[in-house]
Amino acid sequence: MITKQTRHIRQKQCSSEEEEAEEEEEEEAEQAEERKRSREPRSD
Q: Bias category Basic residues: which stretches (predicted)?
C-alpha cells in the first residue's frame, strides 16, 4: 500500500517542478478546508 507520504517523496524524486507546485496547492487547499470547518459554529 502506498501512503500519501511515500507517493509525495516519489513525486519529488521524479516529477517536474510544476507537478510539485500543484501538489503543494492541493495540500494548502485541504488545510484551508479544515480551518474553515473548524471555524464553523457547531449546531448542537
A: 1-11
